[in-house]
Design goal:
By secondary structure, this protein is of the alpha+beta class. The protein contains 11 helices and 18 strands. The strands form 5 sheets. Strands 1, 2, 6, 7, 8, 9 and 18 form a 7-stranded mixed β-sheet that branches. The longest helix is centred in the middle third of the chain and has 25 residues.
Length: 417
């Protein structure tokens, strides 16, 4: 392998803040909002020109119910603009589930508004390239963008990258799975006569059977998994907020390491090709799709898992669904028994750092539920509040009195059950 030796360089410090949130997905927005509401000076860095992460860039716009803590606030805002609607016609595969459709464009706008109202400083179109660590404590990050290379320093940092990039760069331990969950490209179709489609197939859960039969007949060349596995539904669809518009799961691609740019590139090429094949097939072969068109595809392929940071606890699926942890700081749903402990958002070995979203400390089986959008909002709310409280108390995140944090979160409307 060839190597290039780069010259030593001096990197300018362009910002010094109390709380630095790395990543503008829903977990990052919740963290930044709640840190600012609790008196901290906050900055948020995001690689895209908009916020929301996979909820917007990935078109993950059919969600679990948003009914606890900051999720309530988001829900009420979306309801006021009629962009939060219970999905119908889901079918047997999801007959016990509740899926809510949201408008990704309204969500982008409302998330931006939340941050601006709290005077959070935004830096978009910016990539994080390295974490700054001194004596085991996170001091901020090095970033690159059109202006070049710069340093941003912070008293406390929140890793909301989804992949745990900041924590991993800081030297925090993490786990990855050998059998990675599949990736999926989402897309929306407009001008679908949903009533006619339902009269023919019954519900969206039966869409994969129609596709499977076409593949078996040789009418549709399709190499992605069609069937549900690992909480990936294969080929599926759901009604969205507006008439004649649906959200489509275009099949599952296995064997993709979301930390490998070459593999991610391959995933984008393959899944986009299959999205077009699937849309063309539906348009040509299923009554109700004659006038349909792809309205837009996701900005990026949906990656379900990469790193899981190791904290003082790595709860299993059964534990997060049944245990009442003494240090519970996130209960995403008011009506479901799911809880996340504080020890899952504080990584081992690195101080002044939180992790939120789908890179928190938990077993792989737990993450099939913990990566969901309302859970990411909830862990972000907990971490942002904790970051501000730790600064007020003059303690490290690891030393924070969790009872004080729980009291503050309850005052924000979090019902711990």
């Amino acid at each position: 392998m060839q190597w290039i030796t780069e010259a030593e360089t001096r990197t300018p410090v362009v910002e010094n803040t109390d709380v630095l949130v790395c990543g503008g997905g829903v977990a990052g927005v919740a963290a930044a909002t709640c840190a600012a509401r609790n008196g901290a000076k906050v900055m948020l860095i995001e690689r895209y020109g908009f916020l929301g992460g996979l909820a917007t860039a990935g078109l993950v716009i059919t969600l679990g119910p948003m009914n606890n803590g900051i999720n309530n606030e988001i829900r009420k805002t979306l309801e006021s603009s009629k962009s939060y609607l219970k999905c119908s016609n889901l079918g047997e595969a999801t007959e016990t589930a509740t899926l809510i459709a949201v408008d990704p464009e309204i969500l982008k706008y409302e998330l931006m508004g939340m941050l601006l109202r709290q005077n959070v400083k935004l830096l978009l179109h910016t990539y994080i390239v390295r974490t700054i660590v001194e004596n085991g404590s996170c001091q901020g990050v090095i970033v690159e963008n059109k202006a070049g290379r710069a340093a941003i320093l912070a008293r406390t940092t929140v890793d909301a990258t989804g992949d745990g990039d900041v924590a991993a760069s800081a030297g925090a331990p993490y786990e990855t799975a050998e059998d990675l969950l599949p990736v999926t490209l989402m897309f929306n179709m407009a001008e679908v006569d949903i009533d006619r489609v339902m009269s023919q197939i019954g519900n969206w859960g039966k869409l994969r059977r129609v596709v499977k039969e076409a593949v078996e007949r040789g009418d549709l060349p399709f190499d992605l998994d069609l069937q549900p596995s690992g909480y990936a539904p294969g080929v599926f669809a759901a009604n969205l907020c507006y008439p004649r518009e649906i959200n489509v799961w275009s099949g599952s691609l296995r064997g993709i390491n979301g930390l490998d740019p070459a593999q991610l590139t391959r995933a984008e090429v393959i899944t986009r090709e299959h999205a077009m094949r699937l849309a063309a097939f539906l348009k040509a072969n299923l009554a109700g799709f004659e006038d349909a068109r792809i309205e837009y595809t996701a900005t990026q392929v949906g990656v379900r898992e990469t790193r899981r940071i190791v904290g003082e606890i790595m709860p299993s699926f059964n534990e997060v669904m049944t245990q009442r942890f003494s240090d519970t700081v996130a209960k995403p749903y008011a009506d479901r028994e799911m809880r996340v402990p504080y020890r899952s958002i504080v990584p081992k070995d690195v101080d002044n750092l939180f992790v939120v979203g789908r890179c928190i400390s938990a077993k792989q089986d737990a993450m099939v539920q913990l990566r969901i959008i309302p859970v990411c909002f909830a862990t972000g709310q907990a971490a942002g509040t904790a970051a501000a409280l730790a600064l007020k108390e003059g303690v490290s995140p690891r030393e924070l009195n969790v009872a004080l944090l729980q009291e503050n979160l309850m005052a924000q409307g979090v019902d711990f059950g």
